[in-house]
Amino acid sequence: MQTKLREKIFLRWLPLVVINIYVLVPILWTVITSLKAEGDILKKPIRYLPNPATIENYLRAWVNCNFSKYFLNSMFISVVSVSAIVLIAIMVGYALNRFQFRGRTAFMLLLLCIQFIPHAVLLIPLFNTFHAMNLIGKPLAVILVCITFQFPFNSILMRGFISGIPYTLEEAAQIDGCNRFQAVLKVVIPVLVPGIVTTAAFAFIGVWNEFLFSMMFLNDAANYTIPIGLKMMQGEYNISYGALAAGAIIAMSIPVALFAYLQKYLVTGLSAGAVKG
Amino acid sequence: MTNVKASATGPVLARKKTDCAPYLLLLPAVLLVAAFMLYPIGNVFYLSLQHYNPTKPWMNGFAGLENFAKILSDADFRNSLLVSAKWVLAEVSLQLVFGMMIALILNQKFRGRGLFRTLAFIPWAMSGVLTAVLWSLIYNQNVGLLNDVLLKLGLIDTPRAWLANSGLVFGSVVVAELWRGIPFFAISLLAAMQNISGDLYEAANVDGCSRWKAFLYITLPSLKDTIILTTLLRAVWEFNSVDLIYSLTGGGPVGKTTTLSILIANHATKTNNYGYGSAISVISFIILAIISLVYLKASKFGTSE
From the list B12, B98, B116, which residue is nearest A16 (CB)? Predict the structure, then answer.
């Protein structure tokens, strides 16, 4: 009994505590910093708790540092991209699961291979492409890149969800007089809703977090997304740590909320042969 | 009526070879990949043979292999290869070890497991820039927590410049990247562990096997495929990763955190030397292609489908 207890402490609870300190301290410290009064943040010795707690940093980030604008920009790019990604994922997933056709394996291979392409390599040529299309500085450039980068993983995910829906459902609808497209629209899509929501959540996190190409393409502060806003704030000479921390909390609110929803799918979804960083 | 007939003949898949529906469904995807992935890759090969700098148009023109010749004698390039190798090796091995530990713990049944699972996986959802901000607030010399705690514990006697000291910066960035990288391994390994039959462990227990031996002879062999795949995937991912290092150190100080991908990003965003940057991209691409081929061979992709 004694050894069992010791085993439990050293093999379970001690590592768990260490892991959670490692995971949570940076998040908690950012929350604390974001709630401190501006003058308190730089005071020595460092205070571990905000006293008094204030939301002035959030107001500063939201209003003075333009996070309200960045938030809307990020939202716009994310919603448009995710809608397109989900639509393409349904089309690709449906084609791969419901049809046998020449080139199917090659296409699957392509989906997998393109996830290995180093994004940094595409920076220069894509800049040229979008320059030629007159899209530099416009959100559409980032949207197109996000759709292209995110749809392969999400298509593989969607294919898994579609394969879980029996074809007999569509058949029944077709016997009732629907054509194939109507059958998909009226029978498959309603059953697919949980899969669509999950795919959308994965895609949303990916698009919301996109940094490198937004940095390269969006050169006008009016079009900055949240990651660019954060990066710009970090580089400022007279950096306001409180506002930076508040900006970080605003930035993480969406992915963390989506994560809370997604976590039940994480273990199954990521093991379904899908590839995601 | 044709639909009724079609559905009556085949229970699952449309059998007609000439059916164009799947191709129409894949068309947008193929167009996107062609326009924004394959064409740019072709373009980067072309640019690598050019002198090309949009801010100095009078210098532009065919360069032949000059850019590549320059790379061979470029100390920055050699340094970045070394940093990349160190970076990938450190990240992948440490993420695997810690991910395995977390998966093993969270695979046991105990009260509060769900909560700990949620907490341990949170960083998975964070972006590189966000991670950089969070850790910069830990490492910072003015407002950072790390120096303060280490000083109070007596582990150091003067504050350290975690991101500016050339001896410390690599380790500091590795720790920050581990923070958001470990959950991926933990999640993947945990998923694989849940597929191992409990009977195996019971049999081992009956035979008087220790927990360590059970791990060595049951868990590890069952996880072999997952471990190979996740490590290779992560190697590629870490080789390509830019966001975190770019926002935390920008590759500095003195190139200590300049990986190959950071070097390319810096050429693209700062020096505007697109021709030379493209040549480095080509080399990076070839390295990745080799790693990917190894991965595809190892995973035997397509055979199980």
Answer: B116
B196 touches chain A (CB under 8 A): no
Range of the domain at B291: 43-73+273-305
Q: Is A206 on the interface with B (CB under 8 A)?
A: no
Asked whether the beta carbons of residue A12 and residue B237 sit closer than 8 angstroms, the reply is: no
**Rounded Cα–Cα distance for residues A274 and A35 (Å):** 39
In a domain, residue B302? The reply is yes
DSSP symbols for A34-73: HHS-HHHHT-SSPPSS-SS---HHHHIIIIIT-HHHHHHH
Interface contact B136-A99, CB threshold 8 A: no
In the A/B pair of chains, how many CB contacts fall below 8 A? 289
- On whether residue B5 sits in a domain, the answer given is no
CA B60, CA B66: separation in Å to the nearest integer?
A: 13
pLDDT in tens, chain B (305 residues): 334 334 333 344 544 445 788 899 999 999 999 999 999 989 888 888 888 887 777 777 777 788 888 888 888 899 999 999 999 999 999 999 999 999 999 888 888 888 888 888 899 889 999 999 999 999 988 888 898 888 888 888 888 888 888 889 999 999 999 999 998 888 888 888 887 878 888 888 888 888 788 888 888 888 887 888 788 888 888 998 888 999 899 887 888 899 999 998 888 888 778 888 889 989 988 888 887 777 667 666 545 43
Sign of CA dihedral A146, A152, A153, A159: positive
Number of domains in chain B: 2
Same domain, B50 and B116: no
Q: Give the span between the Cα atoms of B194 and B123, in whole angstroms.
A: 22
The verdict on residue B15 lying in a domain is: no
Per CB-CB distance under 8 Å, the chain A contacts of B132 are: 234
Please, what are the domains in chain A?
A: 1-54 (no CATH), 65-236+250-271 (1.10.3720.10)
The reply to whether B52 and B195 lie within a common domain is: no
The residues facing A99 across adjacent strands are B14
